From TrEMBL, chain A:
Belongs to the binding-protein-dependent transport system permease family. HisMQ subfamily. Keywords: Cell membrane, Membrane, Transmembrane, Transmembrane helix, Transport. The keyword Signal does not apply. It is found in: Cell inner membrane; Cell membrane. GO terms for cellular component: ATP-binding cassette (ABC) transporter complex. One of its GO terms (biological process) is amino acid transport. This is Polar amino acid transport system permease protein. CDD domains: TM_PBP2.
TrEMBL record, chain B:
It comes from the Bacteria. It is a peripheral membrane protein. It comes from Azospirillum brasilense. This is Amino acid ABC transporter ATP-binding protein (PAAT family). Keywords: Amino-acid transport, ATP-binding, Cell membrane, Membrane, Nucleotide-binding, Transport. Belongs to the ABC transporter superfamily. GO terms for cellular component: plasma membrane. It is found in: Cell membrane. SUPFAM superfamilies: P-loop containing nucleoside triphosphate hydrolases. Residues 4-238 form the ABC transporter domain. GO terms for molecular function: ABC-type amino acid transporter activity; ATP binding; ATP hydrolysis activity. The keyword Cell membrane applies.
Length: 216, 242
């Protein structure tokens, strides 16, 4: 039995790297998927809209914990596919990110007035150019504050990966706590680290909101 | 041959028939002004000419080509038939220059310097060359509408459509937009306007079309039409806008 000391604190900080890795994976794979979902949801094709909606309903109706369990424990049982924790957690976080960001971005796209599409079409622009140059920049401005807000949710959400034994910040906290029998102290420090990581983003989201609302 | 040939066009929204067999010729260089009460179908007709609305029956041809919302060269067609809207519809996140050059740069791949020269050229025609680097929000409504006209001119259209372009403007800003349109008319641009500006209709138009209940009720040169309205509907419309 030992008490909490500097090396423990350092091991928590080093586990924070894996939290960051999860966030990067979730955004790196989830964001392109989110864009695709947002485009499908706003497309003229009923089949595309329906497919995207069904996917979103399914994913958003399941807690993130459920997704993690499904990909880590469920996949080997149902499909016979064994996955290392990082892969299972990465897929679950990606799916989660895609569905929530996709809805945020759909909101941004739909918030741009229909007349902007029409004006761009009347200039002879292709549908892709209409979106790329006229709609997307305006949608992006509107969706940026809630996107940053979601990033905060995502960082905190990665703590659930501890449930499948993936060692990120929360799981490292469990390990240190078990070794030191100082759960109150250790978890307080873990919480403080999450807070320190999220606070700048929260402030940034708030300042973006004020700035973008104030602008045109 | 007429530049625009509209034959027996019908169009419904749900169970409401807005156009009930409209026929109209527009010759090159003509300034055609469509007047009528709101709900008479005049804006819808204008939007059909540009394939913004699908027609249910009849036929519209522009320069001999049948207009359809699914025509294969719709994008080329749209560049030949410019339209200016009531709400300007400038792109708020782009400068005036970018608003004007976006389509030429993407569609015709013109060079950057050439784009700036083009923007300056069309802005001079609407008297706003000094606003080339401004954003739409920094301009008055009248100036924004003149930029929208310039943006349209930059595509070198063969025909321009104006959908109540002064209706959203404060009264003191209407004149500057009408003046630009009069200049264009003098330079020989073929124009079709839906408007409530009877002064403009009277002075600049070569033909007035009075629409009522989804039909062309009367048409003719402005002097004739305003002096001798043949139908009670036009008489009461003229009396109401005076």
């Amino acid at each position: 039995m030992r008490s909490f000391s500097l090396p423990d604190f350092l091991s928590l900080l080093s586990a924070l790297q894996w939290t960051a890795v999860l966030v990067v994976i979730a955004l790196g794979f989830g964001a392109p998927l989110a864009l695709a979902l947002a485009l499908m949801r706003t497309s003229a094709s009923r089949a595309l809209r329906w497919t995207a909606t069904a996917f979103l309903q399914l994913v958003q109706g399941v807690p993130l914990l459920g997704l993690l369990m499904f990909f880590y424990f469920g996949m080997p049982v149902f499909l016979g596919i064994e996955m290392p924790p990082l892969v299972a957690v990465g897929i679950a976080m990606t799916v989660y990110t895609a569905s929530f960001l996709g809805e945020i971005w759909r909101g941004g796209i739909e918030a741009v007035k229909h007349e902007q599409w029409e004006a761009a079409a009347c200039l002879g622009l292709s549908t892709w150019h209409q979106f790329r140059y006229v709609i997307a920049p305006q949608a992006f401005r509107m969706a940026l504050p809630p996107t940053v807000g979601f990033l905060v949710q995502l960082i905190k959400g990665t703590s659930l990966a501890s449930i499948v034994g993936f060692v990120e910040l929360a799981r490292a906290g469990q390990l240190v706590s078990a070794a030191t029998f100082q759960p109150l102290l250790v978890y307080s420090i873990v919480a403080a680290i999450y807070f320190a990581a999220c606070l700048p983003l929260t402030l940034w989201a708030h300042s973006l909101e004020v700035r973008l609302n104030g602008a045109r | 041959m007429a530049l625009v040939d509209i034959r027996n066009v019908t169009k419904s929204y749900g169970s409401t028939q807005v156009l009930k067999g409209v026929s109209l010729d527009i010759k090159e260089g003509e300034i055609v002004t469509i007047i009528g009460k709101s709900g008479s179908g005049k804006s819808t007709l204008l939007r059909c000419i540009n394939a913004l609305e699908r027609i249910d029956g009849g036929e519209i041809t522009v320069e001999g080509q049948t207009v359809r919302t699914d025509m294969p060269n719709l994008r080329d067609f749209r560049q030949r038939v410019g339209i200016v809207f009531q709400a300007f519809n400038l792109f708020p996140h782009m400068t005036v220059e970018r608003n004007i050059t976006l389509a030429p740069v993407l569609n015709k791949r013109i060079a950057k310097a050439e784009g700036r020269a083009l923007a300056l050229d069309v802005l001079e025609r609407v008297g706003l060359a000094d606003k080339i680097d401004a954003y739409p929000a920094q301009l008055s409504g009248g100036q924004q509408q003149r930029v929208a006209i310039a943006r349209c001119l930059a595509m070198r259209p063969h025909l321009m459509l104006f959908d109540e372009v002064t209706s959203a403007l404060d009264p003191e800003l209407v004149g500057e937009v009408l003046k630009v349109m009069e200049d264009m008319a003098r330079q020989g641009m073929t124009m079709v306007l839906v408007t409530h500006e009877m002064g403009f209709a009277r002075n600049a138009a070569s033909k007035i079309v009075f629409m009522h209940q989804g039909r062309v009720w009367e048409e003719g040169p402005p002097a004739d039409l305003f002096a001798n309205p043949r139908t009670p509907e036009l008489q009461s419309f003229i009396a109401s806008v005076r």
